[in-house]
Specification:
The chain has one domain: MetI-like (MetI-like fold). It contains ten helices and no strands. By secondary structure, it is mainly α.
Amino acid sequence: MGKFFKHLVSKPSGMIGFAIITCVVLTAIIGPYISPYDPDAMNFKKRFLPPVWMEGGSVKHALGTDMLGRDILSRLICGTRNSAIVGISAALIALTIGISLGMFGGYLGGMADGVIMRLVDIMLTLPAVMVAILVVAITGPHSVSIIIAMALTMWSEYAKVIRGRILTLKQEAFILAAKSMGANAFRMILKHIFPNVAYIVIVIFTLQVGLIILWSAGLSFIGLGGITVSWGWDIAAGRQYVGKYWWLSTFPGLCIFVTVLGFNLFGDWMRDVLDPGATENL
């Protein structure tokens, strides 16, 4: 573990990504306790207050207020929590489905593998965003719908990569030896195969969380998010005022940019570190 963090510190991009993810997760956990105001609380007497460093700004509203007098900092903090919940939950569901099907098909082979891979091919050819929009439009715009929609569009990547890795592992000497000793399929997958594909899962998961956050913000932007306190929703609400009151859309846009960048930087670093060919770096 010490070598892991030593390598992390030696890579600026990985360190930046780790710092961003840490801030996002901590904000999501303690957000309700550090938020200055209720994110939905309106005060029409304080509409369009600028950030504190601009003329007319107030220390009580450090990042200003929106068209309804709601505190922007409070909405960003609450939006961080909502985005983290959607991103991590959807990625975990996609991970569970993808790993289960990928391992099942790759290890057992035969007809089961053929059916699973045809399903994977279908999912990979469909535009993921369009599938997500369709699911949300059918089930209704709310956070659970977004999580389900994102998971349904993301699991195929896990299944394809895991299945390919397992096909290679099945020819390794330690797998053949375990089979010859009578290890059953469940034990083979859990003890011998999964540890050798875990690094792939971690990398894909890290990268997908950022992508899901970006897509969920896009769904909120077009009115299919179902969450009234979200970065995408705030960008959409403030876009008609962006010429004069730029902070309404700029700050939530920066939150999306920085968060997605953080997950991508950390995911790329994880790929370099956890790849078997790079283990000597640790």
